[in-house]
Amino acid sequence: MTVEFSIDGGYALIRLNRPQALNALSFTILTEIDAATTQIEQQITAGKVRGLIITGAGEKAFCAGADITELTGRSMAHEHEGARVGQAVFTRIANLRIPSVAVIHGYAFGGGLELALSCTFRVATSRAKMGLPEVKLGLIPGYGGTQRLPRLIGEGRALDIILSGRTVEAVEAERIGLVNRLVDSGDPVEIGKDFLAPYLKHGLVAMDFARQAISRGLETTLTEGLRIERDLSTLSFRTADAAEGMRAFVEKRPAQFKDQ
Fold first, then answer.
1. pLDDT per residue over 185-202, tens digit each?
2. Is the domain defined by 204-250 classed in CATH 1.10.12?
3. How far apart (Å, rounded) are the C-alpha atoms in residues 236 and 115?
4. Is the confidence at residue 16, as pLDDT, over 90?
5. Which residues fall within 8 angstroms of residue 122, CB to CB, at 6 or more apart?
6. Mean pLDDT calculated for residue range 168-197
7. Among 32, 59, 79, 134, which one carries the catalytic annotation?
């Protein structure tokens, strides 16, 4: 398998396992990521998973991008379908109810960075390098990069990165908000667990509502965004977790959320 999937103490782990090819994003890897996402959705429903960590095998790369050998000689229909599939797989990750983190410990280029962008958060080691270099091949990003990157770091910075195809070093990535945290080094899985731990003590319902309010609000006007927030805030008061959270606050004890 070119993608390893496991569950460890409430964390789902997806590891791209193609280190000899710098974990290049082949169509097989996309299919296996999609299959792993299906399992994650099932485990979330069963209450066994509360966070997702995505990383890559080996010391050199998170994911160095698409497997270029698979991209040549295709018909226009196949090219369009390939972009549709890649976007759909990454959108499933972005839409998971649980928080996710990509731990970038080497190269994250092209589709690899687009995979990281589909996660809720990104953590990079000091030797991480990332970018969307498709323009150097006469192409543009096709798995969400032109849409998720400007929403994350702003139009101007995204234009600079995409139109130049340049490499972004780890320090700059943290400065511009491309990654949420920069760490020196360490085991990627443990880095991911340490990062997600503070979020996992909260109820999934409230976190999901908050993420919906932000993401849906960014797609519309401030007035409409406030309406979305108002509606979701009202819904949050009707949950069992809200009743437990307020009761625990009054009783001066930690809340025991049930994700309901």
1. 889 999 999 999 999 989
2. yes
3. 30
4. yes
5. 101, 102, 104, 116, 178, 179, 180
6. 95
7. 134
Break the chain into its structural domains and give their ranges.
3-200, 204-250
Question: When comparing pLDDT for 65 and 40, which is higher?
Answer: 40
Nearest Cα to 23, choosing from 93, 102, 125?
102
Which among 4, 41, 114, 229 is annotated as catalytic? 114
59 catalytic residue (yes or no): no
**Average of per-residue pLDDT across 200-216:** 93
Other Cβ atoms closer than 10 A to 140: 12
Give, in words, the CATH class of 3-200.
alpha beta
Considering only CA atoms, which of 135, 130, 132, 154 is closest in space to residue 143? 132
Closest CA to 132 of 124, 142, 122: 142
Token look-up 């702003």 returns 154
Bridge partners, residue 10, by sequence: none
174 is catalytic: no
Position 155 pLDDT exceeds 90 = yes
